[in-house]
Amino acid sequence: MSSVRLIHHPDYIALLPAERCKVLSSAVLNGGLQEANALLNMRVDKHAPLHCLAPEQTLLKKVEELSLPAATIGMMTAASMQSLGQQIEHKDDLTVACWVTSGLSNVRRVGDKADDNAVPGTINICLYINQALSDAALAEALILLTESKVTAIRDAEIISPVSGLPASGTGTDSHAVFCPDAEPQHAYCGKHTTLGELIGRVVLQACSISLNHCLRSLAENE
Question: Would the keyword Cell wall biogenesis/degradation be found if you checked this record's keyword annotation (predicted)?
Answer without folding.
Answer: no
